[in-house]
Amino acid sequence: MSLKQSPSRTALEAARAATRLARQVAVALGDLDLSPSQYRLLLFLSEGNAAASAVAGRLAVSRPSVTALADGLEKRGLLQRQGDPSDRRKVAHELTEAGRQVLAAADEAVADRISGIVAHLEADQADQALEGLALWNEALTLVRGGQEPRP
Length: 151
Known about the structure:
Blueprint lengths: L6 H24 L5 H10 L4 E2 H8 L3 H13 L3 E6 L2 E9 L1 H22 L4 H22 L7
Antiparallel strand pairs: 1-3, 2-3
Helix pairs in contact: 1-5, 3-4
């Protein structure tokens, strides 16, 4: 099924798959007592520390939502907050070593879950499905970076 054959049907199938896949990610994270939102925050912070406003913008959530997510992760010792000495209003969030370890375990759990699902496909289809998800990751990264769509 190609996008050129039936864009609306293909887009609908992709949207439905993304929704179902999101649930599978949530199931994989459940054993680690992480929500998908907490996982996304850990992923973002693995790229470096960030102020709450930057985190909120990047995760497309409100600042109070970032605060609630960070509160839970901080209580578990997975992130730490540090005030900015030059501006007391700013607080940076940073992963702790425990946070990096939980993120690595979460990455493995999600990858294992996805691998288990695609194992139901023929080998070439499984490869295509995984490559498709990797392309989605690339596209989402480009959107986040503000890159204009390609012609």
